[in-house]
TrEMBL record:
Residues 1127-1136 have a biased composition (Basic residues). One of its GO terms (molecular function) is calcium ion binding. The chain crosses the membrane at residues 1221-1242. It is found in: Cell membrane. Disulfide bonds join 76-91, 116-131, 155-170, 175-187, 182-200, 194-209, 237-252, 279-294, 299-311, 306-324, 376-386, 1062-1077, 1200-1209. SMART domains: EGF, EGF_CA, LDLa, LY. This is EGF-like domain-containing protein. The lineage of its organism: Eukaryota, Metazoa, Chordata, Craniata, Vertebrata. It comes from Chrysemys picta bellii.
Amino acid sequence: MEPVSTVEEANIQKVVAFLAMPLETVPEPVTLPTPAARTTVLPVAKETTAVLPLSCPRTWIPCRDGSECIAHEYLCDGERDCKDGSDEEDCSQLCDTPGAFKCLSGNKCIEEKNHCDGVQQCPDGSDELGCWKPTQDCALRCDGNMRCIPESWLCDGNPDCLDEADEQGCVHEECSKSEFQCKSGQCISYSLRCDGDNDCKDHSDEEDCAVPKPLLCRLGEVKCPRSGECVLKDWLCDEDIDCKDGTDEQDCEHEKLHCSAMQWSCSSGDQCVPDIWRCDGERDCRDGSDETGCEPRKCQSHEFQCGTHDCLNYTLVCNGKKDCTDGSDEGGKCLSPCGKPCSQICYQSPDGPRCACQRGFKLSSNRVSCTDINECKEQEPCSQTCVNTNGTYSCACHPGYLLEPDAHTCKVTGSEPTLLVAIQSELLLYGLRSLKEDVLTTTDKNLIIFSIDYDLVEQKVFWMDLNAESIKWITMNTKKKGTLVKGIKSDCIAVDWIGRNLYWTDGTAGELLATCLNATWRGNPEYTVVLDGDLDQPRSLALQPLQGLMYWSEIGDKPQIEQAGMDGSNRKVLIDEGLGWPTGIALDLLSWKIFWSDDKLHCIGSANLDGTGIKVFQLSQIKSPFSVAVFEDGTYWSEMKTRTVQKVDKKTGKNRTVLIKRHGQPYGLKIMHEVLQPMASNPCRELGCSHLCLLNPNHKGSCRCPIGEVLADEKNCIPLKDSAFMFLVAPTVITQVYLKKLSPAAGGETLPEHRVFPLTNVDYLTAIDYSVRDKSLYFADREDGYIRLLRIKDSGKLSWKRVVPVGGTVVSLALDWLSGNIYWIDSRNPDIRVATSNGRYALVLISEKLYHTVSVVLHPPTSMMCFADLGMENHSAGPKIECASMDGSRRKVLWRKSQMPVGLTFGDFGTRLYWADHMKGVVESIQLDGSRFRLIRGGLHGLTLFAAGEGMMVWTTPTRNGSTRVWHSKLELMENWWFQVDQKIVDLKIYSKFTQQGSNGCSENNGGCSQLCLPNHQGRVCKCTVGYHLEDGTECTRAVTCPEPLEACKDGLKCFTREQACDGHNDCLDGSDELACNYLDRKKPRSTTAPTPAKPGFRKEEEVVAPTRVQTTTKRPITGTQYPHPKGTKYPRRKTPAIQTPPPYRESRTTVSNMWEYTEEPSPSPESVESGPEPQPCSSETCNMRGDCTIEEDRVKCSCMLGYSGDYCEKTEVTSTTGPIILGIAVVLLVVMAMVGAFVYMRRQHTRKRTSSTASSRTLTSYHKDSDLGEEENLT
């Protein structure tokens, strides 16, 4: 019974209320159903004599004495639950009822429907015993029903039960119609029947053959004396019977062998065994000499060492019986009591009391206490996973494997493992359990299948055809064939079953390559180079897609095994010692080891995946290994000399077995099973690469491109010719280097992959710029006097011509690749000049407050321009970096703390400027608004040139021998990669097709301007060259040409005489005839033209007296003006003409006055391209088209038409009519005179136009006769 204290509180309250009631009012008895297995009724008080009737809940039964209730399942369960034991009485009657099952532990019975229902109802669980049903994972129970055997293990020739029940009662399966059944029951392909090779283990496939045995054997073969078949000479005396008569293993005389440093020479001298077999407790030499002379075995802590060095269990010591052969276990101090404070065992010995430890422990240094032995590290007893525990250990298996009865060996479950091997021109399948042989495919007899691999996802087998230089595939179920890639040379292939790629090595080119696993050959290479460079004849390759790693061997001058990410990252050398010629490698992911076969050292080696724990087996049967594979506890390899496929234990190198022995040469081999290609998520699936995606060690994917293409961003590929590149400008040669071809390696002595543009007739290049879209290269020669254009044609030819004449040596050149305008700085003056792409129109853009400009750079999409000015020595104007709009407006000083800035470059989409400082050896940057200045790099001593772009920065330093070292690094990283160029570099630029994109106000149709279109932040400004003036904001019209001795107004609209200059009257519409005048009294000149605005400083009505002109010059275009450029020389300032306001460009809601800023138009440049014609004779233009012009005594005189007057017919007369008659006569006269005047005017106008056109044409032709000179040459 359970105590009252365990009853729920609510029930206790009911009981208390019941006990408090008078006896005569006792109601129905209260029952106490508890959640426990048994429920009892609480006893009433002693003074109460009445017995309450017992009421049990449903499914519960009362005991016979009525004192308690028990649950129904406790009835007849073999335990007394009622005090009177009534629950276990008459149980035989219940079990005898139909449909009852009696438990084995007692009289407990359950209903038959609960028998073998998966839930134990019997206390001893006997109702679920013997309920097993065969499944694929448990097809047989053996060893007292304590072990399950998978279906794939049944009758596989390897006993897996201790009683070998899995190999009993086996009946060989019937072979298919396409197979031949050997006498032993083995199935082989009919194509192997009577082919001269013993494919059946009992050789029955070569019996009763209709084809007669050959009379003569092939080269390298011998005929068996009695049975008559041909066998290889290397098969004689190889310890394997190959002749049916066994004569190949008879009368064998073993030659004296010279054992290597890794072998032990048996005393017989005719046998070598691996040195690790020496004294391992097993006889490996035929004469047993490998186990003689060995040091005595060290006894364990629970053992006693006899005088003969034998080990005896401590329980047999001092027992009165001599168990050691020399009796050393008895006598002495055996009678001494064991009083040592041993932590585990104390026993008596002839030497007195000793401490001992139980199995799995060892005595510590104090010889009293015991410590645990870590068997997993000291012994490696398990084939896969070892778990050490206190005093013992246990073995475990990876998923897909089960532990064998020996509790140490793991065996694979699932389908039968199959050996896939390439033999000459055949692909052979060999069942490792059933020994079934089948030919998957046969290629042309002249072709050789060199390397193989498989993909279980698509059930494909891939192979490399050595002679056809291709990789092909075949499906295992439908036998469909295809070609993955052609035109490649490969030594080994490997399948990435997770990332869905196929890799291969090219030993000739020294490359590791990869392509998509499901690629279809269409004539174009769709593969990528994963690794190249310093690979020294890569041979074998193995992948670990679960970790994103690959391993390969190199057989060059320095044999080694290396590891890298499957995308080529994190490369490192794994093993570089003890290797001869590692022809094959394989991974064992269960033990985390790598195995390799060595053709030079005739061995098979292994090591941990970190390169430690190297172990080598050098067997006499390993003569010329080609390929190696690892599966379960075995190592498999193909032997070229003996033409066999063999197997040994992967830990000991023992238990050698010959699996396949044929006349054909075996090459590549693989073990096929699903546990060797475990499935996992593919990180490339969600990455969205345009072409290839390679796994990397970070469990992610890396997008890669086929040969000839590079990544434009993180995912998309573009042709290499469209990717970013840099121009290295030498004095006479321009070299193009693609940024994607820059190798992250320090100390490269040669240029990366590059392209050279040789320039003929070039003395010394000084500056360049390039339009990627037009393939147009603008460059300047030191002594040429021109900016030239080089067009790179698709045919590979170079076509160049002179474009813009310059006054001095161009020190900086910048191209607006949207509009085609050319900006430059020359050595004769500090101005920034601009010209159209064809050089027809040019002008000085910025000249004020410039002293020693050395660099100009543009960002056409944002219409921004920045330039560096070194200032003047011993002058307050120091070095500075300025920025402005590309029309010269909105000038702003950006930075003043540089000493000698070079290589100005826009970044971050035109919002940041980068540059290097030659004097300070630093790289700096700043936002265009003057904020967020950053020091990018420091310590770049000797820096001369700098460029940045596409996330890279490049700079140069000179060397002592006159060459140049070109450094490169990712922007804002501390990388220092470099390569060397054997000449001086004078300019350096980076270009990209994707950075030269966008638009500005001049990118389409020249912005609607007839001459120069200059973009700014609001749109564009149209400008005219010298000799033209702007009309309607876009059109440039030729200014009037004034004959001697007349002078032209600055706006080019009128002419005026010397007398009219500084006469106090504004004769020019722009008032330029009254500029630079010294008046005797400061009175404003009278204006002769009403529309001209008054000049500041003059009143309108004042008269002027006898003005004198300071300087009078003839307004002609001038050329040849020279400006010296020594350091410390200040350039002469230029005055600017009056400003013009252009109309708004395109449609805009902003008004003209708000949208456009007034920009000072520079004065005409001495080198301006477009100039006016030569002075013309006096014409009607001189008289403003209102009269005839004549010259009398060197003075111009105009005969004005009716209604006009003035020296140049500039005034309009107002006549009054006095009467109808006079008016009529006047009208008639006017009409007649008008007709005559019109006739004369039209003739003279026609003559003037012909003259003007001829002169203009002659002037332009004369000017451009040099500019049109060009040459064309082939690109070499």
